[in-house]
Design goal:
This protein is α/β, with parallel strands linked by helices and 238 residues long. Helices cover 34% and strands 11% of the residues. The protein has one domain (6-214): Rossmann fold, CATH 3.40.50.620. It has helices at 15-24, 42-55, 68-72, 102-117, 139-152, 170-179, 202-214, and strands at 6-10, 29-36, 60-65, 121-123, 160-162. The chain has a 5-stranded parallel sheet with strand order 3-2-1-4-5, with helices on both faces. Helix 1 packs across helix 6 and helix 6 (170-179) crosses helix 7. The longest helix has 16 residues, at 102-117. The two termini are 26 Å apart.
């Protein structure tokens, strides 16, 4: 059998990056990268990353420190003086949980590692349609960053950014993950708490709504498990 090419997967510990890893492993050998940047649930996210990497049998793991993002602050995830807001699922502006230019910082480190590993791709679990509206999760951002990679790496480096779930809704991501046996029980999405998920922050709300629309039980524990109103979603077909 021919050896699979190598891909670096950015794994936060949440459901989106977990499903992205499950998609990537169909065609690639995996290396996984995680960033600690002083976020509120840093320890719990790191635990989720390690458990997901173990589930997928990934030996190549890298945890990078990006504490400068918590020094810069500007986000409810990195600044304790800014409260994590409850979810507003319709007609919202960019939420306080947006960490300024975080994906560019993480991608820059991932490109450095991928070039050293001679990887062929970097997989990112960004979602544009049904996520929080972060500007660095848009397709145009990744297109622009891909051009930066082309210009700023060695001439023989050919490295694509892959965003396989970027046009999916959360419900579609749940169904795709279920089809691929993604370990949702190992993931963590809550922005507030590290023991039991709050169920009401922006990330919990989007996750819970996705599971509810998909008709799938969310396997992690919650303090509250509200029923969230939802927009009309496209039917998902694998």
């Amino acid at each position: 059998m021919m050896k699979k090419p190598l891909a670096v997967v950015l794994v936060s510990g949440g459901m989106d990056s977990c499903v992205t890893a499950a998609i990537a492993r169909e065609e690639y050998e995996l290396a996984m990268l995680h960033a600690n940047y002083g976020q509120r649930t840093e320890r719990r996210e790191l635990r989720a990353f390690k458990e997901i990497a173990e589930f997928f049998g990934v030996a190549g793991q890298l945890v990078i420190p990006l504490e400068h993002l918590s020094t810069i602050k500007g986000s409810s995830l990195t600044d304790p003086s800014i409260p994590v807001c409850d979810a507003e699922l319709t007609n919202r502006e960019i939420p306080t949980s947006y960490v300024p230019f975080r994906n560019a910082n993480i991608l820059a480190a991932a490109v450095s590692w991928a070039e050293v590993l001679a990887a062929s791709a970097i997989f990112v679990g960004a979602v544009e349609e049904d996520a929080s509206g972060y500007p660095d999760c848009r397709k145009e951002f990744f297109r622009a960053f891909s051009e930066t990679i082309r210009i700023g790496t060695k001439p023989n480096t050919v490295l694509q950014i892959a965003t396989p779930i970027i046009d999916m809704s959360k419900a579609e991501i749940v169904l795709r993950g279920k089809a691929l046996d993604a370990p949702f029980h190992l993931t963590w999405s809550c922005y507030r708490q590290e023991d039991v998920a709050c169920g009401t922050c922006d990330s919990c709300a989007l996750r819970l709504r996705g599971f509810q629309i998909a008709g799938v039980d969310d396997p992690i524990p919650y303090d509250k498990k509200p029923m969230y109103p939802h927009r009309q979603n496209r039917a998902y077909s694998p």
